[in-house]
Specification:
The complex is a heterodimer of chains A (537) and B (178). Chain A has 537 residues and is α/β, with parallel strands linked by helices. Chain A contains 23 helices and 14 strands. Chain A is globular. Chain B has a four-stranded mixed sheet with strand order 2-1-3-4, covered by helices on one side. The longest helix of chain B is centred in the last third of the chain and has 13 residues. Classes of the chains: A alpha/beta (537), B alpha+beta (178).
Chain lengths: 537, 178
Amino acid sequence: MDLNDLLEIAEKENASAKPIRLRCCTAAGCLSQQGDAVKNALQQAVADADMSDRVEIVGVGCMGLCSAGPLVKIDPDGALFEQVQPEQCASIIASLNGGGPAEASVGSDDIPFFSKQHPIVLENSGRINPERIESYIAAGGYQALFHSLREMAPTDVVEEISKSGLRGRGGAGFPTGLKWATVAKMKAERKYIVCNADEGDPGAFMDRSVLESDPHRVLEGMAIAAYAVGATQGFVYVRGEYPLAISRLKTAIQQARRMGLLGTQIFESPFDFRVDLRIGAGAFVCGEETALLRSIEGQRGTPRPRPPFPAQSGLWGYPTLINNVETFANIAPIVSKGSEWFSAIGTEKSKGTKVFALAGKITNTGLIEVPMGTPLRTIVEEMGGGVPNGQVKAVQTGGPSGGCIPAAHLDTPVDYESLAKLGSIMGSGGMIVMDQSDNMVGVAKFFMEFCMDESCGKCVPCRAGTAQIHKILTKVTDGRATSADLENLRSLCEMVKSASLCGLGQSAPNPVLSTLRYYPDEYQACIDGGAAAEASA
Amino acid sequence: MSSTVAAPSKTAPAGGAKGQPSGDNRYKMLEATMKRHQYAADSLIEVLHTAQELFGFLEVDLLLHVAHSLRVPPSRVYGVATFYHFFSLKPKGDHTVVICMGTACYVKGASQVVAAIEALGGIKAGETTPDGRVSLMTARCIGACGIAPAVVLDGNITGKQTAGAVVDHVKGWLGNGS
């Protein structure tokens, strides 16, 4: 396999494409709204109308606008149909033949939800067939890997990633190039690459969507990383809750292996790289890197103190590079288009784009990818279409490790530093919009219950602290709390934050602290309400 | 290690369907998985995934069998099986309803759906109705936030659910066969 073979595959794939293509979303969001039935009905309709010589139905990945699914998009004229029902399919096909307008609701991709996006990670999502490697190759796939292996030294690749300013998309925002350089510098007989696809934050589904829509992009990024740091074995650690992502990854790994894009002597170079899947078994703490490594080793997912960092001593004691799905998905474009192109996007300290999962009380739910530094208001009000019949009260980012950002701060640009200043975090990209009917104390309690259940129990501050915080919050919501309890709550949160072993405990108090900071009235109202109820009783 | 294929017969309770020596094909399939992983101790989670897929849940005898085959202490197998939420040591009902309790589903009223099913079945989340018809579970987040609240009915993800619709569905299951 060399570049010519790649180009030949791409050419063949493009040549076999029929003049009219109907792209159907087959990612989990649309599939659970009968997306599969729609695809089958369209296929049947094409066969019935005897148009299969010029019309093809392609199953593609996520097109982003989950709230309007199942989505069908027609190439080349660009018509977009929303909430398509199987019985509407015949009329859609007939409309292609001049048989009058289709009886399906027509959407537009000229709305801010689509037009304000800047797709890099998601550029192939909703365009290519995730179950065919040829489709990825036709979109330019695996050329960046070729370019790295044959024309760049490993140090050049690390240098390019460092210069791009890419930061880890898992939430903490650690500079990716620095991490790669650390692993590359280690002298060891074996090194590992791990892709963290244990997307445990409730309300986040970016990684799931990337894996379901463009799995080869992630594999290519991992292979480039392996070449850069000198690893030969990789693992993708996926949540067990994502069966479709798992099956598409399995298919992708097999296809890449068969074509010689994974395995031994890739692109006729001395570089070998093998990827295996590891399926998680439902433990939020496994998103923490040291816990994830223990889980890959077949043990209970409990974290350990760092240092040594996984980059120095990871899987089975060998240097291990761990990056998130979205981070790996950024690698191939950076290698092909160069670090300058990438670092021109975004803000001074946060480069590139970020994918967000918009959900909650918002008109347009789904996935968006915007340049770093885009104001929260643009995302929520323009792209998301705001709250249906109501007003934004808060935006929750970062899941149980993040915080609630009140509507007054909607003009904040979204980047790592600005969100941290507001007491929240970028997190992996979940963005839940809340309206006036949501009680913030209840939200804080919801997250604390989550952290209490998910605490692995290894360190006392997290194990006992989260339980105590939850207990106080229950007292507050039951109207039994006093002002002294609020003081206790505050100091307990600070203690858990500073004394816990891993990120789970250190960030667990964030939802409580941020709601205490921005919505003290709601806590006070619970206390006063409780006191009033007692007085009248 | 292939001699351990029917090992659980030693520890299986009398009449335990899973303890049938060699008669149960599922043991062969489990064996094949362990063999593929070369009986490596670090394949424990993968093996438990397969075991649960084959048997529906992880009986203590099954855990002992895995411990024996992979040569890891039973305490570690038990530790791992109970650490991860996905593994169940109790049998599930004929039908399962999994209600997503992720943040998006929570703000869209998933807890009302849970409460309605709890009231209908007279069970708490995580339990199975006494007749073994329906198991009710909650999930952390199934990643279907765009169509919240999401409910998984016997493995099929359904979005934009209401308490009433789910209650009707589960009523069908409860009525069936009783």
